[in-house]
């Protein structure tokens, strides 16, 4: 369980890098003015972690927003945590190195804080991982990890890896509690990170969550994000509305009881809104 009390609190990854517990995700946020404004709103309101990916096609806007925010608010680059991911078509040693350069150029940054393999494409992710290890050893990226990896993918990768994955970003919400994966990542000091923590809005009318939210004077979204944090899971909710971005960050001033946590845990149905990594048509 995290002891995070503030938006700026961080978890220390296995290599000593500090990663914010809460960040802004920009999946499916249109490049240009929309993503620029949402990222600037997040940073203005205290967020320091922004998560994008090559396939989101908005790295250019994210980078512009980051640079403008640094200038406008006097924020240093070292105080921000920027994540991107290499897409499936670019997995391979040389192609991953090239994809990283493309992402870095679009973002207009000198380095990334975290670079992830987006999906575990069989026969390709090990060569991509060697590229991430190279970038890590060169200091081009502060931490490396994976996304959408099941336990068996992690085990396979770790057999040959020189540098162990530091993060696994996966679909995670009360309907998909990822219990086996959570236990494995905790055992191997891999930080679990949640994408789609609100199940793309499908949980916001859930009666059990609504009852817990009412008891705490919080929204259902805030209760779910708090559940993530108390389970030791980094979370990156997406929103393009400043009011929602602010609301999502107000999860450090209350605590769910053990009964609350158990009630939310009991909602698990191993149900996904995204693809199963074992059956994803890459």
TrEMBL record:
InterPro entries: AKR, AKR5G, Aldo/ket_reductase_CS, NAD(P)_OxRdtase_dom_sf, NADP_OxRdtase_dom. Residues 35-269 form the NADP-dependent oxidoreductase domain. Gene3D superfamilies: NADP-dependent oxidoreductase domain. PROSITE patterns: ALDOKETO_REDUCTASE_1, ALDOKETO_REDUCTASE_2, ALDOKETO_REDUCTASE_3. It comes from the Bacteria. Keywords: NADP, Oxidoreductase. PANTHER family: 2,5-DIKETO-D-GLUCONIC ACID REDUCTASE, NADP-DEPENDENT OXIDOREDUCTASE DOMAIN-CONTAINING PROTEIN. Belongs to the aldo/keto reductase family. This is Glyoxal reductase.
């Amino acid at each position: 369980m995290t002891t995070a009390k503030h938006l700026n609190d961080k978890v220390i990854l296995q290599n000593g890098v500090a990663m914010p517990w809460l960040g802004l995700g920009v999946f499916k946020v249109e490049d240009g003015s929309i993503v620029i404004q949402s990222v600037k709103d997040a940073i203005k309101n205290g967020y320091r972690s922004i998560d994008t990916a090559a396939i989101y096609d908005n790295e250019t806007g994210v980078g512009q927003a980051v640079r403008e925010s640094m200038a406008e608010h006097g924020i240093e680059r070292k105080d921000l945590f920027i994540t991107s991911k290499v897409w499936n078509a670019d997995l391979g040693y040389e192609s991953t190195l090239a994809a990283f350069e493309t992402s870095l150029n679009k973002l207009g940054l000198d380095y990334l804080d975290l670079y992830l393999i987006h999906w575990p494409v069989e026969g390709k992710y090990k060569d991509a991982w060697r590229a991430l290890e190279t970038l890590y050893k060169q200091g081009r990226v502060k931490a490396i990890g994976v996304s959408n990896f099941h336990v068996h993918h992690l085990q396979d990768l770790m057999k040959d890896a020189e540098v162990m994955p530091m993060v696994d970003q996966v679909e995670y919400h009360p309907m998909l509690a990822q219990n086996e994966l959570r236990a494995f990542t905790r055992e191997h000091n891999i930080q679990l990170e949640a994408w789609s923590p609100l199940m793309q809005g499908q949980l916001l009318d859930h009666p059990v969550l609504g009852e817990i939210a009412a008891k705490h004077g919080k929204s259902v979204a805030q209760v779910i994000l708090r559940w993530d944090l108390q389970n030791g899971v980094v979370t990156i909710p997406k929103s393009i509305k400043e009011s929602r971005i602010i609301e999502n960050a107000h999860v450090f001033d209350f605590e769910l009881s053990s009964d609350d946590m158990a009630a939310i845990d009991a909602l698990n149905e191993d149900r996904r809104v995204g693809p199963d990594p074992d059956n994803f048509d890459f």
